[in-house]
Design goal:
- This protein is of the alpha/beta class and 228 residues long.
- It has one domain: Rossmann fold, CATH 3.40.50.
- The chain has 9 helices and 7 strands.
- A 7-stranded parallel sheet has the order 3-2-4-1-5-6-7, sandwiched between helices.
- Helix 2 links the parallel strand 2 and strand 3.
- The longest helix has 24 residues.
- The protein is globular and about 45 Å long.
- This is Stability/partitioning determinant.
Length: 228
């Protein structure tokens, strides 16, 4: 089963939000998702635990397991077990530079590097991409620009975006700052559940998540086809 690792050595880039959005839309297609929370903040694990305690997600196809306490070299075994229990595996790595993220990337089919449009985020993004390239360049990856405004953006943000797109492979889609994405975390819901509850407009958020998911799965399929 496909494994996607979300990696960024700088915190606050939206890793967990992205993981939830991708899992939400894969589940909406009828697929099962196993998420490994390798971040010691355990945001994914708390989201999953809280929704169960609130009586939601009993029939959900989304499972979350704590991978923050296992040794760096054991993440590969955790990923292997997850592959056997779901149709899609998502690893939410820690927002620091560490060996566990590197090992997770090695056992993944694709890596997404979320980044905000700031100089510091760009520097950390370049570091993460260099780490992947040092691993032999065998792991396909793309950079996803996150937390952008839908209309007004500063000149500095445009310039950072231009630097990213000229140096690194990026998604055409950007992950805007939207109420629907915040509602997933605030209300411990998937995007589909947020929509059903009428807590936020979800059309744009779901379209963005679906586009990113389709791009990632398409890249994985293309790689598998080229490898025979």
């Amino acid at each position: 089963m496909p494994v996607i690792t979300i990696a960024q050595s700088k915190g606050g880039a939206g890793k967990t939000t992205l993981a939830l959005a991708l899992a939400s839309e894969f589940e909406a297609l009828g697929g099962s998702v196993f998420m490994l929370d390798a971040d010691r903040q355990n945001s994914l694990l708390n989201w999953h635990r809280d929704r169960r305690e609130e009586g939601r997600g009993g029939d959900s196809l989304i499972t979350v397991e704590d991978a923050s306490q296992i040794r760096d070299g054991e993440i590969g075994a955790a990923i292997k077990r997850a592959r056997e229990n779901a149709q899609l595996v998502i690893v939410d790595s820690e927002g620091t530079s560490n060996f566990k993220t590197a090992y997770a990337a090695m056992d993944s089919d694709f890596v997404v590097i979320p980044t905000r449009s700031s100089r510091l985020d760009l520097e950390r993004t370049v570091e993460t991409s260099e780490m992947l390239q040092k691993m032999g360049g065998g792991v396909p990856y793309r950079v996803l620009i996150t937390q952008t405004g839908q209309v007004a953006r500063s000149r500095a943000e445009w310039e950072i975006d231009a630097q990213i797109s000229s140096a690194l492979p990026i998604f055409k889609e950007q992950m805007h700052t939207l109420d629907a994405f915040r509602a997933m975390s605030n209300f411990r819901m998937t995007l589909a559940e947020v929509e059903q509850a009428g807590l936020a407009k979800t059309e744009k958020a779901r379209r963005i998540a679906q586009s990113i998911l389709a791009d990632v799965l398409g890249e994985i399929q293309n790689k598998e086809a080229s490898n025979g």
